[in-house]
Structures are given as structure tokens and as C-alpha cells.
Design a protein that fits this description.
- This protein is mainly α and 431 residues long.
- It has 19 helices and no strands.
- The mean pLDDT is 83.
- The two termini are 41 Å apart.
- Helix 1 runs antiparallel to helix 2 (24-39) and helix 4 runs antiparallel to helix 13.
- This is C4-dicarboxylate ABC transporter.
- The chain crosses the membrane at residues 60-79, 99-128, 140-168, 180-200, 226-245, 283-301, 322-352, 364-390, 402-424.
- InterPro entries: DctM, TRAP_DctM.
- GO terms for molecular function: transmembrane transporter activity.
Length: 431
């Protein structure tokens, strides 16, 4: 049996074990080491410490714990509830206005945190009960919240994009810039869809406020609730986009800003600080343990010749770039039903990247497509992670069927966006 075939068996074995529920980090590292000891020269493993040191020296990856800390700290600050209340007052006189408010607040949280699970849970806790009380059908309410909560997958500063930038070896700042227009288009599409439904189905989209549409007090209330989050977004994202700071430097500013913002809301105390540090340590440790396992897997897979075998296989098959891209997108989409985005980024993406390099594919464009695809798979029934997050905080009267039916229109919107980015990337400044 050739080494290249062994490389493919290694990949399939790891994928199946992860699906079966084995810990991802130890599956990646342990099985790769076993294959290396059995089928490769022992000297190959002497390269591993240098690879691990390369991961430890990668300053871009420092942005991960800093962005995670920023997101969790902001989730504790109570700003989301303030923003939702003020935005609901602003748009409450429009049919579907509360749903539009959820989308806008979800986008602002995504641009502030970049953490999907925390955003979905927070939005579910603060917006689902009021929407149900105001008369929104459970399908509409759950669909809006789940879709808005996953915007953090693609709206910068997204942890997903940081990890994709590291794996694809492209500029994280470039990924952030390329993701800006598609993410804004997605938010706009959600809002247009909801406002359109408010016109077509007025009973399902009630007005939640009455009285004059605008007054001085309302404008001041909205500006006060948005000022600090927007200031933080401009400081973090703006500094990256205009080239004033690297993603890691901006993440440090964001983490410090999140602490100050939480303090300004009177929410910063020792229990909150301890909980934020604990949750940040747990999530960051998981990511970096998986990254170390993925580094071992990448080394062994390439030493077995798996990357060269895939490239030669595609070359012999004369498969066009777009057909291979479609195949990868389907695989990533289906894999997203069963495993988290971190596993997809560190298991599937490194395997297919050499093939795209051989095609001459723009890897920034590929990273944006993968980010949108991962966001879509997070929403897809029956195993979308966002649906499980939301179901965990939903009232008993909200069924799984409500979640599945409610998310379908938003899935269609995201698939349309994915197609737009595939066929018209120049329009969005992606390629």
C-alpha cells in the first residue's frame, strides 16, 4: 500500500473518529503520531517541535484569546439588552420592527464579539420572550434570532476568519476587508426580507410601539445605547481596515475597551471577571489544543504525500476549478452538521488548500466562501449548532419544529449570498 493511500486513510479515520465523539485534539495528534511511528522514518518527528514552535511564535493567533475575552466580557456588560430596547423603540412603529432590531443588534454584537454561541444565547435570552409576548409567531422569532446570532461567523472581527487566515496563510486583515461588503449585504437582505414580510403578513409582524415616530428623547436614547459599542467597533475594526494596527494589536485594544465598557455599565466585579477569565481560558485552550493536534496531522499527512496525491489526482481528472470548489463547499456544508467550525478549519481546510493553490485560486476569496458556508451550516437543520444553542434557552412552548421551519428563509438568503460571492466577487471587492 502506497504512503499516499495511507494519508487518505489517516484523514478518513480522523474524520470518522471525530464524528463518533472522540476528543478532536487527541484524535488529530494521537492518530497522526501512530501513523508516523508505523509508516514513516522516526526522524520525521524531529520536525514536529519546530512546527509547534512556529504555532507558538505566530503573533496572529494571539488575536484569538483576546477577541474571545472581548466577546465574553461584552456579553456580561448588559449592552445587548440596552441596545435591543432602544432599537425596538426606534423601529417598533414599523411592522416587523422588533425583528429588524434583533438583526441590527445581532450585527453589532457580531462586530463587537465574533463569538457565535455567546451571541445566539444572549439574543435568545433577551429577545425571544419579548417577541413572543408581542405576538410574533415562534417560527419568525426563532428564525430571526438564530440567523442574527450567527452573523459573527462572517462579520469582522470574526474568530473564524482569524483561524482561516492562519490555516490558509493569508492576511487576516485582508480577510476582514473582504468580508465587510458580503456581511453588510447579508444584514441588508435580512432586513429587506423582514420588512417585506411585514407588508405581506401584517398579522405575523405586529407593531410594538405607538405614538409619534420620532422625538428628541428617543433619538438621545438610541444614540446613548449605540455610542459605546460603535466606538469599540471603530477602534477595533477601523484600525485594522485602515492599516493602523494589526489584528492582534486591535484585539488587545478591544479587550481593554470591553473591560472599560463593562465597568462603565456598573457590571464589572470580581465574580464577572473570574467567570470571563475562566470561559476565555476554556475556549482558548480548546482551540490551541486542536491547533497543536492539527499541526501534527498536517506534518504527517504531507510527509505521507497526501497533499501531492490529491493535487495529482485532480490534475489527472481534469476537474475544473469551479467543480472542485462546489465539491468542497458541499463537503464543508455537510460536515458543519456534525462537527464544529474549529474541526473543519483544522481538518478539512489544510487538506484541500494545496489543490486550490495548484489551481491558482485567490485564497482570500476562498476564505470568505468558507466563512459564509460555515455560517450557513451552523443554521442548517437538523444539526445546526445555532439551533441547539437557541433551543437550550427557548421557552417550553417553542418546539424544534418551530426552529427548523423558521430558519429556512434565512438559509435561502445565505445560499443566494454564497452564489453571489462565487460568481460576482469583484462586485463585493472580494477578489
Amino acid at each position: 500500500m502506497s504512503l499516499a493511500v495511507l494519508a487518505l486513510i489517516l484523514f478518513v479515520s480522523i474524520f470518522l473518529l471525530v464524528l463518533y465523539g472522540y476528543p478532536v485534539a487527541f484524535t488529530l495528534g494521537g492518530l497522526s503520531l501512530l501513523y508516523a511511528l508505523c509508516f514513516l522514518d522516526f526522524n520525521v518527528l524531529s520536525l514536529l517541535p519546530n512546527r509547534i514552535m512556529g504555532v507558538m511564535d505566530n503573533s496572529v493567533l494571539l488575536a484569538v484569546p483576546l477577541f474571545v475575552f472581548m466577546g465574553i466580557m461584552l456579553e456580561k456588560s448588559g449592552l445587548a439588552e440596552r441596545m435591543l430596547n432602544s432599537m425596538a423603540s426606534l423601529f417598533g412603529r414599523v411592522r416587523g420592527g422588533m425583528a429588524v432590531s434583533v438583526v441590527i443588534v445581532g450585527a453589532l454584537l457580531a462586530a463587537s464579539t465574533g463569538i457565535v454561541g455567546a451571541t445566539v444565547i444572549t439574543m435568545g435570552l433577551i429577545s425571544l420572550p419579548p417577541m413572543l409576548r408581542k405576538g410574533y409567531p415562534p417560527t419568525v422569532a426563532t428564525g430571526v434570532i438564530a440567523a442574527s446570532g450567527t452573523l459573527g461567523q462572517i462579520i469582522p472581527p470574526s474568530v473564524v476568519l482569524v483561524l482561516l487566515g492562519s490555516v490558509l496563510q493569508v492576511s487576516v486583515g485582508g480577510l476582514f476587508r473582504a468580508a465587510l461588503y458580503p456581511s453588510l449585504l447579508l444584514v441588508a437582505a435580512y432586513i429587506v426580507y423582514l420588512l417585506g414580510l411585514g407588508v405581506l403578513r401584517p398579522r405575523s409582524f405586529p407593531r410594538t410601539e405607538s405614538g409619534p415616530a420620532w422625538d428628541r428623547a428617543l433619538v438621545i436614547k438610541v444614540l446613548q445605547s449605540l455610542f459605546l459599542p460603535l466606538l469599540l467597533i471603530v477602534a477595533v475594526l477601523g484600525s485594522i481596515l485602515v492599516g493602523l494596527a494589526s489584528p492582534t494589536e486591535a484585539a488587545g485594544v478591544g479587550a481593554a475597551g470591553a473591560v472599560l465598557l463593562t465597568w462603565s455599565q456598573g457590571r464589572l466585579d470580581w465574580p464577572v471577571t473570574r467567570a470571563v477569565c475562566r470561559d476565555t481560558s476554556h475556549l482558548t485552550s480548546m482551540v490551541f489544543m486542536i491547533l497543536l493536534g492539527a499541526t501534527t496531522f498536517s506534518l504527517v499527512f504531507r510527509e505521507l504525500g497526501g497533499d501531492r496525491f490529491l493535487v495529482s489526482l485532480i490534475e489527472r481528472s481534469d476537474l475544473p476549478e469551479y467543480q472542485f470548489l462546489a465539491l468542497v463547499m458541499v463537503v464543508v456544508f455537510v460536515a458543519g452538521f456534525f462537527i464544529d467550525f474549529i474541526e473543519i478549519v483544522f481538518i478539512i481546510v489544510p487538506v484541500v488548500t494545496p489543490v486550490f493553490v495548484a489551481y491558482g485560486t485567490d485564497l482570500i476569496w476562498l476564505g470568505i466562501l468558507l466563512g459564509i458556508n460555515l455560517q450557513t451550516s451552523f443554521l442548517s437543520p437538523p444539526f445546526g449548532f445555532a439551533l441547539f444553542y437557541l433551543k437550550g434557552v427557548a421557552p417550553p412552548e417553542v418546539t424544534t419544529g418551530h426552529l427548523y421551519r423558521g430558519i429556512v428563509p434565512f438559509l435561502i438568503i445565505q445560499i443566494i449570498l454564497l452564489a453571489v460571492v462565487v460568481f460576482f466577487p469583484e462586485w463585493l471587492g472580494v477578489r
